Amino acid sequence: MVGARGFEPPTPASRTQCSTRLSYAPTSDGGGRFLCAFPVLRNRVSQIDHGFRKSGFPSCVSPSKQGKLFPHSMVSMARYLITSALPYINGIKHLGNLAGSMLPADVHARFRRLSGDEVLFLCATDEHGTPAELAAAEAGQDVATYCADQHEIQKRACAGFALSFDHFGRSSNAPNHALTQHFCARLLAAGLIEERVTQQIYSPTDQRFLPDRYVEGTCPHCSFERARGDQCDNCGRLLDPTDLVAPRSKISGATDLEIRDTAHLWLRQPLMADRIRTWVEAARDWPHLARSIAFKWLDEGLQDRAITRDLSWGIRVLEGDAPRPGFDHKVFYVWFDAPIEYIACAQEWAAASALEDGAWQRWWRTDCGAEDVTYVQFMGKDNVAFHTVSFPVTIMGSGEPWKLVDRLKAFNWVTWYGGKFSTSEKRGIFMDQALELLPADYWRWYLMANAPESADAPFTLEHFQQSVNSDLANVFGNLINRITRFCAARFDGRIPEAGADGPLETDLWAEAATRLASLTECHGAMEFRKAAAETRALWALGNEYLQQAAPWTAIRSDPDRAATGVRTGLNFCAFLAIISQPFIPATGEKVLAALDVSESRRAWPQPGIPERAFLVPGSGIASLEVLFKKIEDSDITDWQIRFGAGE
Ligand SMILES: [Zn+2]
């Protein structure tokens, strides 16, 4: 899909044509954009930039269109559909889950919105399957109530972390039920689903078939007595329930288990293998990790996959309005319906926003306006195969024009001191606990500055303390607090008007321009560690400038020079607050509000020398409390004990 988008850089001739106004720069996503020398044109240039992507060539650089540089029909924003892998419903997520999908998706969505792009950012809880049933039973709740409660808990935690979803849906909601039936019907009609009879464990006592995880027994390999039907937790071997010695029902403990025939629906994935391979081969915007995982699956050969289960909680298998014959007590397998929620969630969003069907279709149906959407998925590496192979089989197999993923970003794991986060063993910090300790921006910054991009990344409280104290408190927070306080004390809290810019200011903004270009590219390429490093470098640049300008010294001998230093310092703080918004949105907002930067000036700065005047000379600024407090050694000691550090 991506390769078919028909994108060619302009020819040298066309570049010359517009050389007085426009220059062309390649971007990290393999595309390019036009840079404009005139600030007033920048916004419109970024808009035609999109028209260029869509049509393959911008009319603005065609000689015949000179004088009609910005035809009205070309004014439109780039559109990004962004989804995060769906958090599973069985309990609140830990910081590693947050860092591996939802948080980077939010940072990217914020960057795109600030850049003027149109964004639909979706996420939902994944609520079906055996683990939900087991967790509900453990909590002493019926599974529907359990899921409803847990959804609200997760939603609150996500809001606490300022995750800016346009909608946070539920895979158990009606739109996903209807869409899942729809896809099943289409795949049946296409011959890609067939019914087969297999053998499975049945418990007469429980009057039901038992999923693999509901059967326990003694491991035939290591004699562990509580091995599950799918895996032995002691020796790690994968098992079939019929392998177990002395098997029993996990529900009732019954041992009178039988093997009975049962019918299930199977998705015939091998029939789609060639189409999937062609599509993956063309997907050049995917990172290496994602493509290699997809090719590994394809090379090993796709397998037929059972997409129904003998469970009561889930999406019923219907034929018309009634259960499919023989499927009264069966539901779709959670991995079949969960990714369909990406689409259903857009329907939930449209309904919740009182929009018509066309509103979600223009994001998802290429025959209804989604052909110019760039679809970006975020996920942990364990989810890549499902997103690059299984789900595409479902939607491509339907024969309908659904939007397919264009770019995906997969992450390794965040570990807790090199080991696993664990609810039951009280190891690690979970999302709700983190917010009890410190505001979201502290965590957002650390988790993204240390994102598990090329390898697993251990979370340690000691490293967290060091990163917060140096980056957020000493470098960023101190800069802002220092200059605003000095302005309040010596300039009556008003942006100074006196003084002229000198070489120091010219150098500052030139260096900022270079760094900004790199930062913009890193954000566009979803390179979060690098983007954080560039952000930090810009913060440091602000500090260096103030050291050199030293208005607190200059004020005694050269008040105009001090005024220039304070005005520039404050404008630079506004610039820093703007470019820091994707990572630390609450703090960015706080600074921009205190400096009285109008909403219209908070957008992502265009490439080139940033505009120096974010603030109006003579206008007042509000005082700011300390932006980031340092984390004390005593805090770390307390938290190490509470969260099982290094055990
Ligand atoms: Zn074993």
Walk me through the structure.
With 647 residues, this protein is α/β, with parallel strands linked by helices. The longest helix is centred in the C-terminal third of the chain and has 30 residues. The chain is 45% helix and 14% strand. The chain starts with 11 loop residues before the first helix and ends in a 5-residue tail after the last helix. Helix 17 runs antiparallel to helix 19. Strand 8 and strand 9 form a beta hairpin. The strands form seven sheets. Strands 5-4-3-17-18 form a five-stranded parallel β-sheet, sandwiched between helices. It contains 21 helices and 20 strands. The structure holds zinc ion. Zinc ion binds next to loops.
Give a quick summary of the entry.
This protein has 647 residues and is α/β, with parallel strands linked by helices. The strands form seven sheets. The protein has a five-stranded parallel beta sheet with strand order 5-4-3-17-18, with helices on both faces. It has a four-stranded antiparallel beta sheet with strand order 7-6-11-12. Strands 9-8-10 form a three-stranded antiparallel beta sheet, with no helix packed on it. Zinc ion (ZN) is lined by residues 219, 221-222, 224, 227, 232, 234-235, 237.
